[in-house]
Design brief:
Elements lengths: L1 H17 L3 H12 L4 H7 L9 H26 L1 H4 L13 H4 L7 H15 L3 E2 L5 E3 H4 L30 E3 L4 H15 L13 E10 L11 E11 L4 H16 L4 E9 L2 E11 L8 E11 L1 H6 L8 E8 H9 L12 H4 L3
This protein binds 3,4-dihydroxyphenylalanine.
């Protein structure tokens, strides 16, 4: 029977030599050292050994068990990583996640466009102003020369928070960033009140852009969303004309879309500007399409009634204003065909930008 143990050891050592990965090594361990393995079986067979030979047999089995245990550990160390890697999926909880390594932590394309716009206008002397998204109709309509009963105030076209039929100054989610024009002028007039240099309500010119969210109960489709972003612009100085507006917009277009970019102004109407125009820009939506005119927003010379409503004398000061759709700009710049893609947070889309 001792002879059988010698054979068992020889077989075990030979099999161990052919175990080359974690799976075959584990199979070997189960076969020889497992609780139902061959070494255990040999130990169990002790009772069949003639009494006088038992001590020698027992010692031999114990020595065999220890030797194979050693050999197993040595083989595992020798195989190194190969033995450590199970053949199934490997989970190392200390590894950075796949999501992390793909760079999920980047800025959203709209945030990046807003930063780029602030940069380009910043070079032209415009600083960034902000206003609340929860507004009142005073800033969203009244001071922008949009009188009561104007169709733009229709409850069906606005997100009122208070019932406009029952409330004197109903609050609403702002429907346009033009509200920030009013707030900026009011604040400048309040500051100027303390200044000896103030003339006609202002102590110094204004030059701001105001990026932000606006809300309208639109039906959602490829080009409409009930929430979107606008970039408002406002410049007030002593002698601004339509030529300054057009020059500013053309410089912006070339700085942002490249030297080939063209703009055109089409006559239009807005209550808060006179004259008013619609701004189009010639851009290619993607590299293999010819460039075409894309409507970016409205603009014009600030209406005297708006200046007056904010406490500024229109005889001394004049200004221009503009309001663009930021999604339009992002879609034009990055060739995005559907506005909904910007809000779905689908990583497959976001990672392409
Ligand atoms: N507020 C306008 C809108 O939402 C856009 C606009 C037009 C803004 C003309 C302006 C402007 O500042 O001068 O449709």
């Amino acid at each position: 029977m001792i002879e059988q143990l010698d054979q068992l050891e020889a077989a075990a050592r030979s099999d161990l030599g052919s175990a080359t990965d974690a799976a075959s090594l584990e199979a070997w361990r189960v076969t020889y050292l497992g609780t139902k393995g061959r070494v255990r079986a040999a130990l169990g067979a002790t009772k069949d050994v003639p009494k006088e030979a038992r001590p020698a047999y027992g010692q031999r089995v114990n020595a065999l068990s220890a030797a194979l245990e050693e050999a197993y550990k040595a083989r595992r160390a020798q195989l190194g990583d190969a033995a450590a890697t199970p053949t199934g999926p490997r989970i190392d909880v200390t590894e950075p996640s796949i999501a992390w390594s793909r760079g999920v932590g980047r800025r959203h394309v709209l945030s990046r466009v807003i930063e780029e716009l602030a940069e380009v206008f910043g070079r032209m002397g415009f600083s960034v102003a902000r206003g609340p998204e929860l507004e009142d109709d005073e800033h969203n309509f009244v001071k922008l020369n949009i009188p009561e009963h104007h169709p733009a105030r229709d409850p069906a076209d606005n997100f009122y928070v208070d019932d406009p039929a029952l409330t004197l100054r109903p609050r609403m989610l702002r429907s346009q960033t033009s509200t920030v024009q009013v707030r900026t002028m009011e604040a400048a007039v309040a500051r100027a009140a303390a200044s000896p240099a103030a003339l006609g309500g202002l102590a110094e010119p204004i030059r701001i852009i105001a990026p932000g969210r606006v809300y309208r109960p639109d039906t959602v489709d490829a080009t409409h969303s009930f929430m979107f972003h606008q970039l408002e612009g406002l410049a007030i100085d002593t002698a601004l004309s339509l030529a300054d507006l057009k020059g500013t917009l053309a410089s912006f277009a070339r700085a942002y879309f490249g030297p080939e970019a063209q703009i055109r102004l089409r006559p239009s109407f807005f209550p808060f500007t006179e004259p008013s125009a619609e701004l189009d820009m010639m851009i290619a939506l993607n590299p293999d399409q010819p460039a075409r005119w894309i409507e970016l927003g409205g603009c014009g010379m600030v209406h005297p009634s708006v200046l007056r409503a904010c406490g500024i004398d229109p005889e001394r000061w004049s200004g221009f204003a503009f309001g663009f759709g930021i999604e339009r700009i992002a879609m034009g710049k990055y060739g995005i065909p559907d506005i909904r893609m910007l809000f779905e947070n689908d990583l497959r889309f976001l990672q392409q930008l």
